[in-house]
Amino acid sequence: MLQSVIAQHIAKVRQQVEQACHKFARNPIQVKILAVSKKQPAAAIREAAATGQKAFGENYLQEGLQKQQELADLDLEWHFIGPIQSNKTRDLAENFAWVHTLDRFKVARRLSEQRPEKLPPLQVLIQVNISDEASKSGVAASDALVLAEQVMVLPHLELRGLMCIPAATDDYQQQRATFAQMAALQKRLQAAFPAARLDTLSMGMSGDLEAAIAEGSTLVRIGTAIFGARQ
Q1: Global pTM?
Q2: Of all residues in the chain, what percent carry a pLDDT higher than 70?
Q3: Residue 3 needs a FRET pair 20 to 30 A away by CA distance; which of 15, 124, 161, 207 works?
Q4: DSSP letter, residue 3
């Protein structure tokens, strides 16, 4: 049977991740691929899942919930990677395994209060506005540890690390410099909370995957290189 286009793309992305890991003496097992499926039909996610891809990232809550219903027969791990509206936290808390875009305590508290007891703790990442862009969500790097300390005490969340969406650039050295700042911040976080499982650094997309892996990313968010241009 001919391999689907999406399957071919995923194989290529996996190869790119492995090559980058080899180049920078990283173990490929340490780098997870999150397939960013926003604006993609459920059928495309089903194709990707057939290759063994398990983790999918959605930016829009209602769209993500609809796909979860359509794909309920599959054992998938759903990550929310879009801006969080505080009046939508209940749906996030009840239906997602991970939230990457935590940037204020009010939202963290609501997510913890609304996480069903029967589910494991919601895995969360603090989004850092590492390039200080007014148009982007996220806490300033200088405020990340304060927010982390507040999140740590919430009973139904588990803080796993940091996430960023840096300013777009094709300059490889600039990409690496920005990701290096994130890696340094992650190390400060781990030093401040040595007992916590702070093992996740969500950074790198289709255009800057290698630079992110070079600087220690453990999770790359890949959309276009897997699914093609959004419809």
Answers
A1: 0.96
A2: 98
A3: 207
A4: P
Provide the 8-state DSSP code for 141.
G
In this predicted structure, the answer to whether residue 1 has a pLDDT above a threshold of 70 is: no
Do residues 226 and 8 lie in contact, with contact meaning Cβ atoms separated by under 8 Å? Answer: no
Please return the burial class of 201, using the count of CB atoms within 10 Å of its CB with bins 0-12, 13-18 and 19+: buried
Q: Find tokens 């996740």 and name the residue.
A: 200
Residue 129 gets which letter from DSSP? Answer: -
CA torsion angle 103 105 106 108 (round to 10)? 80
Task: Decide if 64 contacts 58 (C-beta within 8 A).
Answer: yes
Residues 6+ apart with CB under 8 A from 61: 80, 82, 85, 88, 91, 92
Measure the CA–CA gap between 8 and 16, rounded to whole angstroms.
12
H, E, C per residue of 65-121: HHHHHHCCCCCCEEEECCCCCHHHHHHHHHHCCEEEEECCHHHHHHHHHHCCCCCCC
Count CB-CB contacts under 10 A for residue 172. Answer: 12
- Tell me how far apart the alpha carbons of residues 198 and 133 are, in angstroms, rounded to a whole number: 25
Contacts of 109 (CB under 8 A, 6+ apart): 154
Side-chain-facing half-sphere of 38: CA atoms under 13 Å? 13
For 77-96, what is the mean pLDDT? 96
What digits encode the pLDDT tens for the residues 175-214?
Answer: 999 999 999 999 999 999 999 999 999 999 999 999 999 9
* CB contact at 8 A, 71 and 51: no
Secondary element (H or E) of residue 33:
strand 32-36
